Amino acid sequence: MKGLQLPWRLKMVALRERAERTRIRVIRAAHTAFVQRGYTGTRMTDVATAAGVAVQTVYFIFHTKPELLAACYDHAVLGDDDPKPPPPQPWYAALLAANSAEQSMSHFVAGNTAICERVAVLDDTVRAAIHEPEATEVHQRSQRLRRQGYQVLVHHWLRTFGLRPGLTEATAVDLLLMLSGPANYRELVIEDGWSIDAYRTWLHGELLALTAPPPT
After folding, report:
1. CA distances from 145 to 6, 36, 117, 135 (A)
2. By CB neighbour count within 10 A (0-12 exposed, 13-18 middle, 19+ buried), where does 175 fall?
3. How far apart are CA 150 and CA 147, in angstroms?
4. What angle, 0 to 180 degrees and rounded to 10, lies between the N-to-C axes of helices 55-62 and 2-41?
5. Do residues 173 and 147 make contact, with C-beta atoms less than 8 angstroms apart?
6. How far is 33 from 10, CA to CA, in rounded Å?
Protein backbone atom coordinates (compact mmCIF):
# COMPACT_ATOMS: atom_id res chain seq x y z
CA MET A 1 0.00 0.00 0.00
CA LYS A 2 2.81 2.40 0.90
CA GLY A 3 4.49 1.65 -2.40
CA LEU A 4 1.35 2.72 -4.24
CA GLN A 5 1.04 5.93 -2.22
CA LEU A 6 4.52 7.24 -3.09
CA PRO A 7 3.95 7.79 -6.85
CA TRP A 8 0.61 9.44 -6.05
CA ARG A 9 2.25 11.81 -3.59
CA LEU A 10 5.01 12.63 -6.05
CA LYS A 11 2.41 13.36 -8.69
CA MET A 12 0.54 15.71 -6.33
CA VAL A 13 3.77 17.54 -5.51
CA ALA A 14 4.52 17.92 -9.21
CA LEU A 15 1.03 19.27 -9.86
CA ARG A 16 1.34 21.81 -7.04
CA GLU A 17 4.73 22.94 -8.32
CA ARG A 18 3.37 23.31 -11.86
CA ALA A 19 0.38 25.27 -10.58
CA GLU A 20 2.69 27.62 -8.65
CA ARG A 21 4.88 28.14 -11.71
CA THR A 22 1.78 29.02 -13.72
CA ARG A 23 0.62 31.42 -11.01
CA ILE A 24 3.98 33.23 -10.96
CA ARG A 25 4.05 33.41 -14.76
CA VAL A 26 0.62 35.05 -14.79
CA ILE A 27 1.65 37.52 -12.05
CA ARG A 28 4.78 38.54 -13.95
CA ALA A 29 2.81 39.04 -17.15
CA ALA A 30 0.19 41.07 -15.29
CA HIS A 31 2.83 43.21 -13.58
CA THR A 32 4.32 44.12 -16.96
CA ALA A 33 0.88 44.83 -18.41
CA PHE A 34 -0.21 47.05 -15.51
CA VAL A 35 3.01 49.07 -15.75
CA GLN A 36 2.89 49.44 -19.53
CA ARG A 37 -0.86 49.90 -20.06
CA GLY A 38 -2.16 51.08 -16.71
CA TYR A 39 -4.87 49.45 -14.68
CA THR A 40 -7.73 50.43 -16.97
CA GLY A 41 -5.90 49.46 -20.14
CA THR A 42 -4.92 46.00 -18.92
CA ARG A 43 -7.24 43.20 -20.01
CA MET A 44 -7.28 39.73 -18.57
CA THR A 45 -7.11 38.29 -22.08
CA ASP A 46 -3.87 40.19 -22.75
CA VAL A 47 -2.38 38.90 -19.50
CA ALA A 48 -3.36 35.35 -20.43
CA THR A 49 -1.76 35.67 -23.87
CA ALA A 50 1.47 37.08 -22.44
CA ALA A 51 1.61 34.30 -19.83
CA GLY A 52 0.86 31.59 -22.39
CA VAL A 53 -2.27 30.33 -20.67
CA ALA A 54 -6.00 30.36 -21.36
CA VAL A 55 -7.91 33.34 -20.00
CA GLN A 56 -10.04 30.87 -18.03
CA THR A 57 -6.88 29.90 -16.17
CA VAL A 58 -6.28 33.50 -15.14
CA TYR A 59 -9.84 33.82 -13.84
CA PHE A 60 -9.63 30.44 -12.11
CA ILE A 61 -6.51 31.49 -10.18
CA PHE A 62 -7.31 35.14 -9.44
CA HIS A 63 -11.08 35.50 -10.11
CA THR A 64 -11.01 39.28 -10.76
CA LYS A 65 -8.65 41.97 -12.02
CA PRO A 66 -8.41 43.62 -8.56
CA GLU A 67 -7.35 40.26 -7.09
CA LEU A 68 -4.72 39.94 -9.79
CA LEU A 69 -3.44 43.44 -9.05
CA ALA A 70 -3.27 42.64 -5.32
CA ALA A 71 -1.29 39.49 -6.13
CA CYS A 72 1.15 41.59 -8.19
CA TYR A 73 1.62 43.93 -5.23
CA ASP A 74 2.20 41.04 -2.83
CA HIS A 75 4.64 39.34 -5.19
CA ALA A 76 6.58 42.58 -5.67
CA VAL A 77 6.87 43.06 -1.91
CA LEU A 78 7.84 39.45 -1.17
CA GLY A 79 10.17 38.97 -4.15
CA ASP A 80 11.23 35.81 -5.98
CA ASP A 81 14.32 34.64 -4.12
CA ASP A 82 12.80 34.14 -0.67
CA PRO A 83 9.09 35.00 -0.85
CA LYS A 84 8.33 35.85 2.75
CA PRO A 85 6.83 38.96 4.35
CA PRO A 86 9.35 41.29 6.03
CA PRO A 87 9.17 39.96 9.64
CA PRO A 88 10.68 36.50 8.83
CA GLN A 89 13.36 38.05 6.59
CA PRO A 90 16.98 38.18 7.85
CA TRP A 91 17.22 41.96 7.44
CA TYR A 92 14.17 42.45 9.67
CA ALA A 93 15.57 40.22 12.40
CA ALA A 94 18.88 42.08 12.13
CA LEU A 95 17.28 45.49 12.60
CA LEU A 96 15.49 44.25 15.72
CA ALA A 97 18.73 42.81 17.12
CA ALA A 98 20.89 45.87 16.32
CA ASN A 99 22.67 47.55 19.22
CA SER A 100 22.42 51.06 17.81
CA ALA A 101 19.87 53.11 15.91
CA GLU A 102 22.41 53.58 13.13
CA GLN A 103 22.80 49.83 12.64
CA SER A 104 19.05 49.23 12.89
CA MET A 105 18.33 51.88 10.26
CA SER A 106 20.98 50.40 7.96
CA HIS A 107 19.24 47.03 8.00
CA PHE A 108 15.84 48.63 7.46
CA VAL A 109 17.09 50.73 4.54
CA ALA A 110 18.64 47.66 2.87
CA GLY A 111 15.44 45.63 3.11
CA ASN A 112 13.11 48.48 2.26
CA THR A 113 15.14 49.57 -0.77
CA ALA A 114 14.97 46.07 -2.21
CA ILE A 115 11.17 46.18 -1.88
CA CYS A 116 10.96 49.64 -3.47
CA GLU A 117 13.05 48.46 -6.41
CA ARG A 118 10.40 45.83 -7.16
CA VAL A 119 7.22 47.77 -6.40
CA ALA A 120 7.89 51.46 -7.21
CA VAL A 121 6.74 51.56 -10.84
CA LEU A 122 3.69 49.38 -10.18
CA ASP A 123 2.76 51.56 -7.21
CA ASP A 124 2.98 54.68 -9.36
CA THR A 125 0.74 53.08 -11.99
CA VAL A 126 -1.92 52.25 -9.43
CA ARG A 127 -1.75 55.67 -7.78
CA ALA A 128 -2.46 57.17 -11.20
CA ALA A 129 -5.72 55.19 -11.47
CA ILE A 130 -7.55 57.58 -9.14
CA HIS A 131 -10.87 57.05 -10.94
CA GLU A 132 -10.72 53.27 -10.51
CA PRO A 133 -12.12 52.41 -7.05
CA GLU A 134 -10.93 48.80 -7.31
CA ALA A 135 -7.33 49.83 -7.96
CA THR A 136 -7.52 52.51 -5.27
CA GLU A 137 -8.66 49.91 -2.74
CA VAL A 138 -5.69 47.69 -3.59
CA HIS A 139 -3.34 50.62 -2.99
CA GLN A 140 -5.08 51.52 0.26
CA ARG A 141 -4.79 47.92 1.41
CA SER A 142 -1.05 48.05 0.75
CA GLN A 143 -0.78 51.28 2.71
CA ARG A 144 -2.71 49.82 5.64
CA LEU A 145 -0.36 46.85 5.78
CA ARG A 146 2.69 49.12 5.62
CA ARG A 147 1.34 51.31 8.40
CA GLN A 148 0.66 48.31 10.62
CA GLY A 149 4.17 47.00 10.06
CA TYR A 150 5.78 50.39 10.61
CA GLN A 151 3.89 50.91 13.85
CA VAL A 152 5.67 47.84 15.18
CA LEU A 153 9.06 49.13 14.02
CA VAL A 154 8.62 52.63 15.40
CA HIS A 155 7.49 51.24 18.74
CA HIS A 156 10.62 49.09 18.81
CA TRP A 157 12.84 52.09 18.03
CA LEU A 158 11.05 54.14 20.68
CA ARG A 159 11.61 51.52 23.37
CA THR A 160 15.15 50.66 22.32
CA PHE A 161 16.72 53.93 21.20
CA GLY A 162 14.14 56.63 21.87
CA LEU A 163 12.72 59.16 19.41
CA ARG A 164 14.07 62.65 18.95
CA PRO A 165 12.72 65.20 21.44
CA GLY A 166 9.21 66.40 20.60
CA LEU A 167 8.51 63.65 18.05
CA THR A 168 5.48 61.54 18.89
CA GLU A 169 5.23 57.87 18.00
CA ALA A 170 2.27 58.53 15.67
CA THR A 171 4.11 61.28 13.80
CA ALA A 172 7.19 59.08 13.48
CA VAL A 173 5.04 56.42 11.80
CA ASP A 174 3.68 59.02 9.37
CA LEU A 175 7.19 60.21 8.51
CA LEU A 176 8.49 56.67 8.09
CA LEU A 177 5.65 55.90 5.66
CA MET A 178 6.36 59.02 3.63
CA LEU A 179 10.15 58.88 3.60
CA SER A 180 10.53 55.17 2.83
CA GLY A 181 7.62 54.88 0.41
CA PRO A 182 8.00 53.80 -3.21
CA ALA A 183 7.03 57.28 -4.46
CA ASN A 184 10.26 58.81 -3.13
CA TYR A 185 12.29 55.94 -4.54
CA ARG A 186 10.68 56.39 -7.96
CA GLU A 187 11.23 60.15 -7.99
CA LEU A 188 14.82 60.11 -6.80
CA VAL A 189 16.19 56.95 -8.41
CA ILE A 190 14.08 56.39 -11.51
CA GLU A 191 13.27 59.98 -12.47
CA ASP A 192 16.20 61.98 -11.06
CA GLY A 193 18.83 59.34 -11.70
CA TRP A 194 20.17 58.89 -8.18
CA SER A 195 22.27 55.80 -7.62
CA ILE A 196 20.96 53.17 -5.23
CA ASP A 197 23.81 53.96 -2.85
CA ALA A 198 22.95 57.67 -2.88
CA TYR A 199 19.30 56.88 -2.19
CA ARG A 200 20.21 54.55 0.67
CA THR A 201 22.52 57.16 2.20
CA TRP A 202 19.80 59.82 2.01
CA LEU A 203 17.11 57.57 3.46
CA HIS A 204 19.40 56.35 6.24
CA GLY A 205 20.13 59.92 7.29
CA GLU A 206 16.48 60.96 7.23
CA LEU A 207 15.37 57.98 9.28
CA LEU A 208 18.22 58.19 11.76
CA ALA A 209 17.11 61.77 12.45
CA LEU A 210 13.82 60.38 13.80
CA THR A 211 15.60 58.74 16.72
CA ALA A 212 17.11 60.30 19.82
CA PRO A 213 20.78 61.33 19.57
CA PRO A 214 23.08 58.70 21.04
CA PRO A 215 24.36 59.44 24.54
CA THR A 216 27.69 61.23 24.64
Report:
1. 41, 26, 18, 16
2. middle
3. 5
4. 100
5. yes
6. 35
104, 119, 212 from 138: Cα distances, Å? 30, 13, 35
CB 76 within 8 A of CB 118: yes
Burial of 120 from C-beta contacts in 10 A (0-12 / 13-18 / 19+)? buried
Compute the C-alpha angle 122/20/121, nearest 5°: 5
Helix orientation angle between 169-179 and 133-160, rounded to the nearest 10 degrees? 130
Taking the C-alpha atoms of residue 77 and residue 32, their distance in angstroms, rounded to an integer, is 15
Choose among 203, 75, 86: nearest CA to 145: 86
* Mean pLDDT in consecutive groups of 10 residues from the start of the chain, 216 residues: 58 72 93 91 94 94 92 85 79 96 97 92 83 84 91 97 97 97 94 97 97 84
In this prediction, residue 12 carries a pLDDT of 63
Helix/strand/coil for 145: helix
Which parts of the chain are beta strand (E)?
A: none
Burial status of residue 204 (CB atoms within 10 A of its CB: 0-12, 13-18, 19 or more): middle
Q: Are 41 and 132 in contact (CB under 8 A)?
A: no
Neighbours of 185 (CB within 10 A): 25
pLDDT of residue 8: 64
